[in-house]
TrEMBL record:
The gene is Omd. This is Osteomodulin. It comes from Chordeiles acutipennis (Lesser nighthawk). Residues 388-417 are annotated as: Disordered. One of its GO terms (cellular component) is extracellular space. SUPFAM superfamilies: L domain-like.
């Protein structure tokens, strides 16, 4: 019996050993290693300012939360704060979004040395309530988020270290002549949903921003294209303005443009070679007043020209020549809510051999009613997953007749032999 009792103790000892192994295992270190690969897209860990090591627990404002797993961050968001708490000197990321903050005084930032990101989105901050130079003194600041506030003017001065500045959803109607000076590192500037008009841009405020890659000016009051944009620009957003024309050689100085979005403007005519750009991948001109198509660069992959006044698609204008050694990359065209009565000529499939989808949808044949082409969507070369995704995107089943569905089933599909 004694032997049996001793044997029964062995499983308990094994279990205790396993438990002790987990007790000694440092989960936090493992989590930190994994998090190195999961930084948000806008945060570059390789450019972090050097911060001396400090023992836990780290200092934290009593109104906020400083998680031990992220000792360089202080979370003060969604706390109904009306003032900015004092910021410990070691903090690099400061999150103050979704509060009732009205002012940005210099006091809380007195001892801050390493701050790299500030998020003040969704507050009630006005320009005149920002202390002079409070941001400019933050020599390591890379990102500043001030969206959804009550700014009437562009906040300046700002530190030369700044790379991303988000000012969307404010009331900015003024831009001082020197507001954007001394910002050589800005790569992304968001000014969407403000009150900017042509007079604000007459001083060519963006011309010296040599590293600017993305400029968002959507939902403003612009009537003409912004002047003298830097040649570094890759993404330009001008949706929801009142722009009526594009100067013929406007994009000659912007050869790096990858995506151009100009939907919901007043464009009527596009000079033929306006978009002869070597790197353009996405072009959105939907919801304008276009009557004709235009030249399509060989690099373009997605074209959106829905809700215009186009009656016919002249493929020869879009593709004047076919070069077997340099074929067009266009894969998707959206042409619904135009005035088409017949599908696009099959010549398009010689010019654009990579075409996968042409979305016709409903057409505005006359004022009293819209009509639907017999082939609402043309699709080819789709995997089953891509086909289903296209179905979900356009919800065409709600409008298609049985004949239309049967026609779609007969489209060439290389994966079904």
């Amino acid at each position: 019996m004694g032997i049996v009792s001793q044997l029964s103790i062995i499983p308990l000892l094994c279990a205790a050993t396993v438990f002790c192994q987990y007790e000694d295992y440092d989960f936090e270190n493992d989590y930190d290693e994994e998090s190195d690969h999961q930084h948000p897209y806008y945060f570059n860990p390789n450019t972090q300012a050097e911060v001396p090591r400090f023992p836990f627990p780290v200092e934290c404002a009593r109104e906020c939360f400083c998680p031990p797993a992220f000792p360089l961050s202080m979370y003060c968001d969604h706390r109904k704060l009306k003032t900015i708490p004092n910021i410990p000197g070691h903090v690099q990321q400061l999150y103050l979004q979704n509060n009732d903050i009205e002012a940005v005084p210099a006091g809380p930032f007195t001892n801050v040395t390493f701050l790299r990101e500030i998020n003040l989105n969704h507050n009630k901050i006005k320009f005149h309530m920002i202390d002079q130079g409070v941001f400019a003194k933050l020599s390591n600041l890379v990102q500043l988020h001030l969206q959804h506030n009550e700014l009437e003017e562009f906040p300046f001065p700002l530190p030369s270290s700044l790379e991303r500045l988000l000012l969307g959803f404010n009331k900015i109607s003024r831009l001082a002549g020197n507001a954007l000076e001394g910002l050589p590192n800005i790569t992304m500037l968001d000014l969407c949903n403000n009150l900017l008009d042509d007079s604000v841009l007459k001083g060519k405020p963006f011309s010296n921003m040599k590293n600017l890659m993305q400029l968002n000016l959507c939902n403003n009051k612009l009537q003409t294209m912004p002047p003298d944009l830097p040649s570094s620009l890759m993404y330009l957003s001008l949706e929801n303005n009142s722009i009526s024309y594009i100067p013929e050689n406007y994009f000659h100085r912007l050869p790096k443009i990858i995506a151009l979005r100009m939907s919901r403007n007043n464009l009527q005519n596009i000079p033929r070679n306006t978009f002869n750009l070597p790197n353009l991948l996405e072009l959105n001109l939907g919801h304008n007043k276009l009557k004709d198509v235009f030249y399509i660069p060989r690099s373009l992959q997605h074209l959106y020209i829905e809700d215009n006044d186009i009656e016919t698609i002249n493929v020869t204008l879009m593709c004047p020549t076919i070069d077997p050694l340099n074929i067009n990359q266009l894969t998707y065209i959206r042409v619904d809510q135009n005035k088409l009565t017949i599908p696009i000529s099959t010549y398009a499939f010689f010019c654009f051999p990579h075409i996968r989808t042409i979305y016709y949808g409903e057409q505005k044949v006359n004022v009293s009613k819209s009509t639907q082409l017999r082939i609402p969507v043309f699709r080819r070369f789709l995997t089953p997953e891509e086909y289903q995704e296209a179905e979900d995107d356009h919800e065409t089943h709600d409008h298609e007749t049985e004949e239309d569905q049967e026609a779609e089933g007969n489209y060439f599909h290389p994966y079904f032999q």
